[in-house]
User: What shape does this take?
Amino acid sequence: MKNVPFKGVIAYPITPFDENDKVDINLYKVLLEKLIVTEAHGVAPLGSAGVMPYLSDAEKEEITEATIKQVDGRIPVLVGVSNLTTAKTIEHAIFAEKAGAAAVMIIPMSYWKLTDEEIIQHYDAVASKISIPIMAYNNPATGGVDMSPTLLKKLLKIPNVTMIKESTGDVQRMHYLKKELGDEVSFYNGSNPLALAAFAAGATGWCTTAPNLIPKLNVDLYNAIENNDLEEAQKIFYKQVNLLKFMVNKGLPRVIKAGLEIQGKYAGYLRSPLKPLSDSETEELKMILKNIE
Amino acid sequence: MKNVPFKGVIAYPITPFDENDKVDINLYKVLLEKLIVTEAHGVAPLGSAGVMPYLSDAEKEEITEATIKQVDGRIPVLVGVSNLTTAKTIEHAIFAEKAGAAAVMIIPMSYWKLTDEEIIQHYDAVASKISIPIMAYNNPATGGVDMSPTLLKKLLKIPNVTMIKESTGDVQRMHYLKKELGDEVSFYNGSNPLALAAFAAGATGWCTTAPNLIPKLNVDLYNAIENNDLEEAQKIFYKQVNLLKFMVNKGLPRVIKAGLEIQGKYAGYLRSPLKPLSDSETEELKMILKNIE
Amino acid sequence: MKNVPFKGVIAYPITPFDENDKVDINLYKVLLEKLIVTEAHGVAPLGSAGVMPYLSDAEKEEITEATIKQVDGRIPVLVGVSNLTTAKTIEHAIFAEKAGAAAVMIIPMSYWKLTDEEIIQHYDAVASKISIPIMAYNNPATGGVDMSPTLLKKLLKIPNVTMIKESTGDVQRMHYLKKELGDEVSFYNGSNPLALAAFAAGATGWCTTAPNLIPKLNVDLYNAIENNDLEEAQKIFYKQVNLLKFMVNKGLPRVIKAGLEIQGKYAGYLRSPLKPLSDSETEELKMILKNIE
Amino acid sequence: MKNVPFKGVIAYPITPFDENDKVDINLYKVLLEKLIVTEAHGVAPLGSAGVMPYLSDAEKEEITEATIKQVDGRIPVLVGVSNLTTAKTIEHAIFAEKAGAAAVMIIPMSYWKLTDEEIIQHYDAVASKISIPIMAYNNPATGGVDMSPTLLKKLLKIPNVTMIKESTGDVQRMHYLKKELGDEVSFYNGSNPLALAAFAAGATGWCTTAPNLIPKLNVDLYNAIENNDLEEAQKIFYKQVNLLKFMVNKGLPRVIKAGLEIQGKYAGYLRSPLKPLSDSETEELKMILKNIE
Assistant: This one.
């Protein structure tokens, strides 16, 4: 039986910076603690929302350690360790395992379009150096490479690749995973506007930064599905769908920062080249959040 | 309140030909009768499965009249009347209404990419000449033009445009329709592999030619949704998903003809340039149908 | 040696209608005569610009006969005979040959995506019924199917398929045709904004409706290429490129009608659903034409 | 008048590694020297061919310094300084200027899709810190963001952004640049298979790693264009087009390494996850190179 430590809502914290472009680790812990206490089923530092690719190695290690210490075993921690080179990916994966991560998430970041064989060897090389499970993450919009369902199936032959996160926004990929791989594999949805469709298709969990703003609605959606209550799930989903779409269209870290501020919380600074939402975008977000209440 | 005569499974008959490339109207009635008695909630002649664009005006009228006579009021009939020119579309829509259709379906077929304004005027011109409702049909893959959700919203301001059929395969379009238009509009799913996702998103019905081969599985899916039993719906959906995908990938009329023959039924001939499935495709279909049982 | 009756600028007349939506055949002849006398190297009725798919069979035959009579042997005539069904395509091809066409142009119009095998059989069936050459036309934007270079290569094995018209707008397709097929095949460019790039890549001719508005600039471009004068060709091309782009973006028949009217000529009516350019589009076209002078 | 230090063939060296995954700086200099002596008009270290994103800061600085020392003023040097964060891009741009670069090349690398405003501020921030010119580089396939012609036009308002490198493979973008910006701006082609089309459209130069394998053919193409001899240019282009396509399809560093080895030269190692060409790919490359001779 494959080792699958995650289910339900896996919450992604953002990485806040101070006015001097340094990671604000104290603010990070405050924001993280809120994700933990609002009943997320897991937490995932160093994801897209956490602007992982914009961080130095030292910053990534600082975030990893701070997360695991703050969580303190209450829920499992999934650490993003993707890197352009195989050597660096291994380095960060080993660090995450030692720090106490329940699993690592790896997207085959690419500058050059990698061949399937290069991707398999990349995962294989990392997998052989750690003993915790790997969540293989497919997101052509940020990672630059689109792993076909056939390739994902091959990756799952690597023993500690046990989870797939799909963010293409194509629900048919999830059908394929479910149909072809059966109960041996767990897949997770990373495309926020597909939250309902993915759970309907049988997703084990939802990787999302939305709990920074609307934790109860996110968890309630999962609970309705668990209760086999589609009508209720549909009702809860349509309450939040406009925010989920806005988050994706405007960029996760930008929207979470603005949303937290609208909710009266301090959210620090973004790292350049990322800039805050414009005034009109902020107004639109205010309306969306107001309509959710 | 808008007039919406359809819900559930709307079954699409194929148009069979004889060995001299003439419509085999007797065989058509036999195949149609099977759709009616297997509990489809509606029937839609002259759709994509019925190779409507390949038929002459006289053939279309023959099919329309034969359908309404055969159905004889047991279930509502939705007649496809799309045409490249506005004048011809009006002509066929008037014919369908007189023959007794419950509604007509119109896709803005295009050779030249039509502007939004041209599309609105096209629907408006037809709508003003008939009193039965219109289902506006969006399917860029066959019709050549992609109507944006915003355009669809505008079309719904025409009083007897009361239904939307979405076949883009993008579940987010359905979210938009449901969220923006609320209970005033009914939307129907025309993308077979999205059957479950569309019902989960709130679709009123499913336009499909699959009941020619697996009527019970199609109707059972709808019933599970009506019973708010997502687990059961998911189970039933995954039984049929491979066939639904195969139908779309290989072309509806080609697959239905081959499938009927595999099931021991006579299905007539296709009209050129359409050709029967190859031997290997037929073998693949046999396996898919066998695995469904 | 393959029979290739066309080179240079092949001019596409529009099909004008009168106020009662009937083809205005007298006006058609007037517009056609202008194309002939302004030194186009060939003329092609019933193309996209001539709204061929919007015409009845009788209208198509009327246009074909009027064209050949008016041209009266001065330049070769290429007649569009594409149709969704194979039977109708054969019927129109035979008619065109009898009427005196130098060649016919065929695009595999599709509602259902045709397989490569279906397309080959379609061309083969037509080719076997006529003795004049066929220009195979690839234009996924209007025809709905994209013929790969590999498929085009196969089509060229049919003896009287001797010419390829490429309208994908992808210059690399032309490189492939030139490189793979060498001097055995002639390819023609149907993407107006690629006129210079296509001639630079070795295109034998340019299929275009632009000579309705700017015949001298079109022919001069070809002449500069024939004179191996790239600098001059570039200068001439950049004079007309904005019009070429506008024509494609707004639709050929709509722009030609508006342009003729701006030039003080009568151009008749469009057939619905096509509508005249909006006021702002007409103003934009005026500026473009003014800047060309 | 804008400062434009480049024209003609701008050659991109690869970055070779030793068996311990360290940059092989001596081998780098050997390969670089060959580019210089074979009449390339400029040289560009730390480009895509040089796997810049896979290098550490120290490795990038080592390459920059080694290049400028080796070139020793014989031809101008264009240094790639792109980075995900604005701060790092500034750091590397300042380093390149101090080291003696003639200009820097910047692609707005993105993980999050940057807004136009974020991209403008990114370039503006870097431009204000250096006095040498910037080549703005558009390549959605590797950089992840597609800068529209309108955005490029805005970037050119920054005084020391004086050059545009276009790698979308869309020749119409080049028409726009030439037509809209006239003689004020120089654009460069970065899409190898478009080399002829781009020069025909008026490109000032060609950024390419092909001179590592076929320097004479590359330079001869430019010379034919300079001599206004399109026929000769076409002939030379078609000799090399299959290699240019293969390079793009299989990845520049992988193909250059394999090609050098086929030519009997030592080319070192690739950095993981990049792997050497497969045996069948190598055979294909051998045939392509053989057919060029």
Remarks:
- The longest strand of chain B covers residues 161-166.
- Residues 230-250 of chain B form the longest helix (21 residues).
- The mean pLDDT of chain B is 94.
- The radius of gyration of chain B is 18 Å.
